[in-house]
Design a protein that fits this description.
It is found in: Mitochondrion. Its main location: mitochondrion. The protein is mostly helical. It is 52% helix and 6% strand. A hairpin with a 2-residue loop joins strand 3 and strand 4.
Length: 719
């Protein structure tokens, strides 16, 4: 079916629902309220050129009669305080304050909330949903945006107030609840969502990693007889949400969306029962230390999110509906479909239908078994291109083939797109290539591919350095960020190549020092704002962002130091590695060395404790039940009932725990630490240490002492 008639018929942003209504449908009270909210500027006098070419002034522009704002003022004044404050926050584009008052709105009585929704203009509800778009919230109110927080960082940095046990940012789970409360009131008042608003709901459910919520929102269009409003933009949002194609939907954790041999069993190939048992056992061992991170919320047992997307049936049905309805296929939609089929391992479909038929990239000389080995003499034929690729296709290629451990093929395609269409390879694409290579080359992922006897899927560790050298050399000359160094150093440490580790760590330490300076500037600006008695959201966000960046970068450096000490092996007691290298390393990176520092010698272990620093210890706080699903030799499904434990760091200075007002801290403390918990005095540390030891020996689950309140505002500093 030709898609020409559908290309420009409807607005791609607002959708069919808005296009069918004329401007005459806008109510007078809608116009009055919007006029009241928008700041008007008096037009200046306008100069015009007459027929003789001389400039003359028309004088002051006559003021047009405006609608009376009496009704608007009365309407705004009659609204409850949370609604008035929310409208003011929308006008000021203050997302942080809007979230605070949105929380108060969600706790209003149901009947009162329904009355308010019925009384305000419908356009205001749309503006409210638009203002709490998860992408806007991530930009303005989430200091952890664009950052992957591992399970280890979650415990060590005490991020319980930011991330829940599912590994999801709490702000998006709360935001989904607020939006559902507003939707319930809207439906009870006889209204329905517009096409644009469905997109915001899909984004919010996906940001909360709620697959059941995503399907519910999509099927809500059928229940409300609005399915005919679905256009290309909505299909794009649904595919992105359903298959978690946006990295933010999996909290920037690539291990949650990588394809494994176990997930492809019985859908792409059949593994021997011994291989299946070994893969199940590997998954069991790795899952015990991850809480509920990356699990499906809709099932009782521990099911990884990628398992839900292991079959190509759902993606195939959506592709059929798009072709049946004549939806225009743009690059964004094609890339999302490409990633969706990649989740199921359908690389043949990606190769023939998407890359060759849609983008015109001939991959006849590239086979799916071309994994890690990189051939630079590949030739590509260039037929008629239907869609000209951009950076968006580069990212989709890396996501699709990287998640399937086809690193060499992903690199070849990225280089081809860059050279053929003269598109510079951005730093983010290089980072994704490095990270996918490191994940697939390191345990436990590499162990899983080897257990499935798919050795071509395991790239060598040197490939990470190969991609790094390509990135920083001609013709790309990409300036590495701290995240690039983090991936490279972890890869080098995993290969026990200590001679290359120290130079890279010193280079990365310079970037950390720059971040420390940024943090100090943000702290001074933040303290000055508090002392002046004002509130500026940009200043708060800068402070929280800099605080988070400094804490996570320090945690990464501490992890490198721990890996270095764990890699020390020497059977000769006079080995220079033990006598010279390790002491010099501890002295150089003393601020980041774990306390106590433990490393192995030929005669045992050495433990160095610094009494002037906090002890790096984790203590148990809570236990969660976990049911693991495995298969036996006969193919029967068995369930192993076990549990996973949550721990919290005993240190406070360099974590992100606490929201104590800054008046309790000196400026020197604020500049040198990131913790906002009250720091015990030196003479109290012995008592605190004993309490920590007692809590670690206590096997009973206790309530978490972490602050679990909202993290997008520091109200304690204002009230």
């Amino acid at each position: 079916m030709s898609s020409f008639s559908h290309k420009n018929l409807y607005n791609s942003i607002r959708g069919f629902a808005t296009a069918i209504h004329s401007s005459g449908m806008i109510l007078q009270k809608d116009f009055d309220l919007l006029t009241h909210l928008v700041k008007h500027v008096t037009p200046k006098s306008k100069k015009t050129v007459d027929s003789d070419g001389d400039l003359f002034s028309n004088g002051p522009t006559p003021t047009l009669p405006r609608p009376s704002s009496t009704g608007t003022d009365d309407l705004v004044a009659s609204l409850p305080r949370p609604f008035r404050k929310a409208l003011e926050a929308i006008r000021l584009k203050d997302t942080r304050r809007l979230l605070i008052y949105l929380k108060q709105i969600s706790y209003m009585e149901e009947t009162k909330l329904q009355e308010v929704i019925s009384s305000i203009p419908r356009t205001i509800i749309t503006e409210l949903f638009r203002a709490i778009d998860p992408f806007v919230v991530a930009r303005d109110a989430d200091p952890t945006d664009q950052a992957h927080i591992s399970h280890g960082a979650f415990q060590t940095l005490s991020l319980g107030a930011t991330i829940d046990v599912w590994g999801v940012r709490r702000v998006y789970s709360q935001l989904l609840r607020y939006m559902l409360v507003l939707l319930s009131a809207l439906k009870n008042s006889g209204g329905v969502l517009l096409a644009e608003e469905y997109g915001y709901f899909l984004r919010c459910a996906a940001s909360a990693s709620d697959l059941g919520g995503i399907k519910w929102v999509w099927h809500e269009m059928i229940r409300t007889n609005t399915a005919e409003w679905r256009h290309g933009g909505l299909y794009n949002e649904f595919i992105s949400a359903r298959f978690l194609t946006n990295p933010s939907y999996t909290s920037y954790d690539k291990t949650r969306r990588m394809v494994t041999g176990r997930s492809l069993h019985q859908s792409k190939f059949i593994l021997h029962w011994r291989q299946v048992r070994r893969l199940d056992w590997l998954r069991y061992q790795t899952r015990l230390n991850k809480l509920y991170f990356g699990l499906n919320k809709d099932v009782a047992h521990a099911e990884d999110l990628v398992r839900v997307m292991r079959k190509n049936g759902p993606a195939g049905r959506i592709f059929h509906f798009i072709r049946r309805d004549g939806i225009f296929m743009d690059e964004s939609l094609a890339c999302d479909l490409m990633i969706a089929f990649g989740r199921a391992g359908s690389l043949q479909f990606v190769k023939i239908v998407i890359l060759e038929h849609i983008f015109g990239i001939d991959m006849a000389k590239i086979t799916s078994d071309t994994a890690t080995p990189i051939n630079y003499s590949l030739e590509f034929s260039l037929p008629r291109v239907r869609i000209r690729p951009t950076v968006l296709l580069m990212k989709a290629v890396v996501e699709t083939y990287g998640s399937n451990s086809e690193i060499g093929l992903a690199l070849q395609l990225v280089k081809y797109i860059s050279e053929t269409y003269d598109i510079p390879i951005p730093s983010s694409v290089w980072k994704d290539l490095l990270e996918w290579t490191y994940i697939m080359s390191a345990p436990p992922t590499s162990t899983g591919w080897k257990a499935a006897h798919m050795f071509s899927k395991v790239p060598k560790g040197e490939v990470v350095e190969l991609i790094w050298d390509m990135m920083v050399s001609e013709p790309y000359y990409v300036q590495p960020s701290f995240e690039h160094y983090d991936i490279l150093i972890r890869s080098i440490a995993g290969q026990h190549r200590l001679d290359k580790l120290l130079p890279r760590m010193r280079e990365a330490l310079e970037l950390y020092n720059f971040q420390c300076q940024e943090y100090e500037d943000a702290v001074i600006e933040y303290v000055q704002m508090i002392n002046n008695g004002v509130r500026i959201s940009e200043t708060i966000h800068r402070y929280q962002r800099a605080r988070f960046r400094k804490a996570t970068m320090r945690y990464s450096i501490q992890t490198w130091c721990r890996k270095f000490l764990d890699s020390v092996r020497a059977h000769n007691p006079t080995n220079p590695l033990l006598v010279v290298a390790v002491p010099d390393f501890i002295n150089e990176f003393r601020a980041f060395i774990p306390n106590p520092a433990i490393y192995r010698t030929s005669s045992g272990y050495v433990s160095l404790f610094d009494p002037q620093r906090e002890t790096d210890r984790l203590f148990f706080v809570e236990e969660f039940p976990l049911a693991m699903q495995v298969k036996n030799k006969l193919g029967e499904i068995l369930y192993f009932d076990t549990s996973t434990r949550k721990h919290v760091s005993a240190s406070t200075r360099y974590t992100l725990a606490g929201r104590t007002p800054i008046s309790y801290f000196s400026l020197q403390t604020l500049l040198t630490t990131t913790g906002r918990s009250k720091i015990p005095k030196f003479q109290d540390r012995v008592v605190v240490g004993r309490e920590v030891e007692q809590s670690m020996n206590d096997s009973e689950a206790k309530s978490s002492p972490e602050q679990t309140g909202d993290t997008y505002d520091d109200d304690d500093d204002y009230y």
